[in-house]
User: Fold these one by one.
Assistant:
Number 1:
Amino acid sequence: MSRVVEAVYEKGVLRPLENLDLEEGEKVLVHIDRLKRIEKLLRKYTGILGKASSRELAELEIEAHEQ
């Protein structure tokens, strides 16, 4: 399963902003994209896909890279 989760980098640690529903000790892959860069790119395409949030568009971007 793949999903997009926002996180904050604080004191050398990435802290997710939502529950990840992971088991203790479970390993995951982390893809880092700086939100400012993504938001700038998404503003360029605002409205093309109808009403979609930045989060939905970011998820589509990740999905496209996985294909």
Note: The mean pLDDT is 80.
Number 2:
Amino acid sequence: MPFSRQYFLSVTDRAPGQQKVHSQGNPRLDAVLDFLAFSASGMPLVALLDEAPRRVANMFAAEVCSLYLVEGSEGELVMRGNVGFANAAIGDVRLRVGEGITGNAVEYMRPVSTEIADRHAAYKHFGDLGEERFPVFLAVPIRGRSGPLGALVIQRSEKSFDSADVELLSTIGGLIAAGIRNAELVDEVRGKRTRHAGGGTRKVTLTGRPAHAGLALGAVAALVRPPTHPVAAIANTQATSEVQLLNAAFEIAERSIVELKKRAENMGLAQPAEFLSTYSAILEDARLRQRVMELVSGGADVAQALSRVSRDAVRAAVSFSRDAFLQERAQDIEELCAALRMLAKADRRATLPSKAVLVGDRLTVFDLLVSARSQPVAVALTERASSPRTRVLIELLGIPAVVEVEGLFGWASDGDVALVDGAHGLLVINPSKSEIAIVREQEKEGSSSQDGDPKV
């Protein structure tokens, strides 16, 4: 017959010198036992990055807890989990091994602590963090089989960490290491990629920079552009219908740009989104529309006419190669004409599946006018996505996004299932069932919340 809690307590009362049951009420012990149960559950990385720092901070009564992962060929330390700092720090705070107190801990593979962090010889200041509020600092390395996997850092405003804290945090780091290894970060499986029939890779986690928070799951689809040379048209005997298609495309584009500008203003992005006014000006340019109409009236279909206009704009810009304004305007005209072509006559060679995770080198206004019509669930962009417009367009699109994903096209293929974690900057190709369950649960909670909202 199993012993009951009451039995143990009664034995403790009768024979305190022989045994003692440590029941609930000791905050530190309760937090440790809670973390042991948590770590034994095989938590996916997307959950570990949030839950582990929160639980560790609670365990040590620390205002800040940060979880760093070693990433890239040069072993950069990237903050992927945190409580205590602004969310913008995640994925953005980066250190070289040996840089800063945290980098020292990883370089020496030994814990490093200090009571006043900014007086430490290795201190690295990040102006946007405001970490000077939490000078009591302890960093421990997270050990892997053949080297460091990352670092675990806790910070407090007062009360130095003692030797018991150092020992316990080091042990906690070992438990976190198992969760990190299970994530199969790309550096750990580099050179071991295996493809199966139908495309795709084994489960692997790619890292980048967070661009828009949120979790989303969908099939990978590469962002595409309309062909440079549209399909040759059959002799046009319905110029009137082509003109109607063209007018409808212009109206849709004009309305969409106006809506995007309003959205940018409401989000406080009016100034960085000022480039949208350029597209409004192009759409309102009577000469451009008149030239397209002339070509359509002369027998060209909409796609051919718009392609001709965009080529003429590029050719004119090239002839004035030193005029940066003309070159940029020509690119905008080319992009807008491509969107108008798709809005007027969808080309199957440039369409996208619905509810997909879009991957590509860049995000453009074309994508907000055309690609967004497929209702993508997330976006992942390569390290080439360096345009100053990219961040603004991602914010306007308003779906989970990760940028600067190294090796994106080397691992992701059309049709692969992908999980985008826009909060931590992760792209999980072929995620596990438990990771998929996290997204599904979040979607269910979101749906329930919407169902409960009063209808207007």
Note: The CA atoms of residues 101 and 143 lie 17 Å apart.
Number 3:
Amino acid sequence: MNIPVIFSFARSGGTLVNQLLGVHPDCLVLSEVNPSASVVPVTRQAADWLGLIGAAEVDQFHAIPYAQQVALLNERAKSKGKTLIIRDWVTANYLAGAVDGLAQPSAILEQPIYLARVGYSLRPLVVTRNAQSVYQSIQRTFPHLSDLPGDVFSAAYLAYARAISTFPRVSLEALQTSPRETLVQILQKLELSTDYIDMQLETFADFRMCTGNNTLAMPSATAHLRQILPVRSDSLADNVLLDSELFAEADRLMGYEA
């Protein structure tokens, strides 16, 4: 038995993909959840966003372990003719300082380990973005990470890239330049119907039952775009010293040419 899981580091296009899948009539997406921490608790998403648990069940559901929560929600989604998709908050596993109160991340992919405990394998898909752009977007977007050292980020990001290097992937850059073609790839890799592509591309911006720009103190510049457009490429500031070899290796593992 497998379950679709989207892996996307912070500021890599995960919210956009989440929105595109969120308006798909066959999908229910748990947004940025992880065994270590979730941006919005699984219980709240299950009750308020997905409608998979009732008010009387909230306390009991909240008390059961993470993997059992996912298994229960997956069965209920299936009973409604829906596919439950997990958007992993993988940043919590790799980047120190990303989660308040989590002193040191595990530096491993926790999602597959926990899901295996309830008999699930993964149907994975990675949404990638150029490492340099990820780093600068994290600095711009999260005040508590505005001074994130380049060497700390590059080491964490490379560890993540190594962990997901064998998984199927699509890039944010491809999604921005060729939205329709890339969305087809996403749906096919997740074994979802491609019958609703026009609707998805027209309505994704209205989908707000997900994390990302909805949960930022200051929404990003692309938060209210109603169509998918290319964004400018980031260039490194002169005063930022990075280990370019680590960045290049992470990009190579994610399918970017040198």
Note: The chain has one domain: 2-145+167-236.
